[in-house]
Amino acid sequence: MKKITLSLLGLAMCATSYGQADQNQLPAQKKQYELETVQFQAPRTHQSSGTEAVYWSEDFANGIPATWTNQGFDGGLQPMAAAQWEYRGPGTTPGVGTGSRGAFAAANDPIQSATRTNGFVIFDSGWLDNNGSSATVGQGVAPAPHVGTLTTDTIDLTGHQYIMLELNSYARVFFANMQIAMSPDGGVTWPDTITAYSDATLGVNGASPNVDNLQYNISAELGNSANAMIRFIFDGRPGNANGNGYYFWCLDDISILDLPNHSVRFVENTDGAPAHDIIYNNDGLSSKHGIMPLKQNRPISFDANIYNFGSQPQTNLRLQIDILDDNDNVVQTLSSQSVTLQPDSIADYNVMNTAAWTATTTGNYRVVYSALSDSVTGADIPRDTFQIFVTDSLMSTDFNTFDNRFGTDDIGPDGSAIASRFDLVQGERIFGADIWLSNTTVAGGVVEVTIMDTTGFTFTNGFPGQPLAYVQHTVTAQDVANRVIRVQLRDASGLPITLDATNTGAYYVVVTMFSNADANPINLRNSTHFSQPSRSSIMYYTISAPRWYTGFEGSLDLNAPHIRVITCALSDPAGCAVSVEEIDLSNEIKLYPNPADEYVNMEFGDVSGEFDLRIVDMQGRTITTKSELAVPGTSVPVDVSMLTPGVYILSVEKDDSVSSFRLTVE
């Protein structure tokens, strides 16, 4: 039996050699469930090759069957009567509309299974430990660490050799193992156990989809057994310095049915490698830029782990990657080598990997992972789709997914920081940055945004050099409403910063946060789409012993923060050009009023003649161009009434001199 989950959630632990301990990580802490990001967790279902006969099932329409055994234990496995599974039904209190009652549950969502309204079961670890209040952690009716087991009566599977277990599940975990044990002899022995979820598979503070359809090949364990039994175990003993167990596990619609002959799945590998992965520039330690300017484009390769869930060998099994453009045209198809895969076996990323693809134009590309074989065809082919954004001027490690928030609530109210690493393959000009916010941010806090070279950085001593660019910004109500802060980044001379791709070619954009002692919290959006190498994002933790860390143990709470730099647009090279006379020309021109409403006036000093004017937005797109005549001591009004409120670059070009001004339109 492969000790794996087929819920296809394997994104949690590959940042450092697929789960290897990182000395620069902090012990994880319990965290409130985030309602803001719940909508991003979609249910998973599995394809099979036909209609399977059902041999046994339980949907809890009549409660937990009287023939089942419901037991609780403490951390030493001594009986603890209160640590039991609960039934939620139409006539119970709480009822079918309530999920976890624990202090950190927030949503209190029940499992959204097809038969939820007639009842489901839950092991509510958080509530058992804290009785629904964060002020009484460890003071509940069954404090963690605890263990709860729910065991079926015997099931006769005589004559059914190739079988699978299927159930609907919903879980969230801090430090716990949620397991399914199997006995072929009526409970005398329990030789095999499946780990459905753990902090390693979901990630610390992570949750499964609601509802998650789990299927397991149990042919070798219970096939042809006349006295099969199944035991569902919430083991809350694994833990760290900040606690054990938590949060909950809901179950419904459990059945044993025919195993399909031909079925394959994408799964997390037994070493923790994710079900799907993406590698940039043939370097597993390179940041994975889900948003990347064409100028910084680089080869991208793909890999996966594919599991033979069926009863028959799969011949010519292979990974196929189809890359589609905005118009759904296939621009590239890549394939791994093909293998014959035996039942209950995994072809891992060492075999299921492809050559590299390099984008040649900007666009939003869909990357479709398909697991193909001679016998798995049509609707039975498992496919998963991700997106890569190749842009004119934006660059970030996030993949445009908002999976959780992270900020002063997690790492300290004042002086804490989040930094995202940008790996350059060519020199770059940086104009500014977009810092995307959670709706839990409160206006009034301050952020400082800097660009730092990675050379000489250490986690204990930080960055040895001075910032290459710096800006301070007070978070406004409009920033919170827009969910984004846009800042302009300039060097000591007031010019956009130029970064060199030679030497390390890696730079951090650092966002330091000041929340006025928690009165104005600042929390950024974070993406967990693909697990990043450990140093792609780092945090400065100020709650105790301030220093830099890669994040929290076993957690993707900090993985790919939505920190997006605005680079020089290839489509507008003139707007990015800077002459050596730029500063001299800028001394001869004054802009007022700035911020502007309908017009901005350009006043000329000792400069005359024809000049070209260009207004460029912060994505590098040219909004307007015009020619004007400069007369010393006079001013020219420039109409900006057609511009939407925001920050722009106004570029003035005369002969070989170019000057760029920041223009704010209200």
UniProtKB/TrEMBL annotation:
Q: Report if keyword Cell wall biogenesis/degradation is assigned.
A: no
Query: What start and end residues bound the annotated signal peptide?
Result: 1-21
Q: Which InterPro entries match?
A: Secre_tail (IPR026444)
What is the protein's given name?
T9SS type A sorting domain-containing protein
Record keywords, A-Z: Signal
From which source organism is this entry?
Answer: Phaeocystidibacter luteus
Does Signal show up as a keyword for this record?
yes
What are the residue boundaries of the Secretion system C-terminal sorting domain, all occurrences included? 591-658
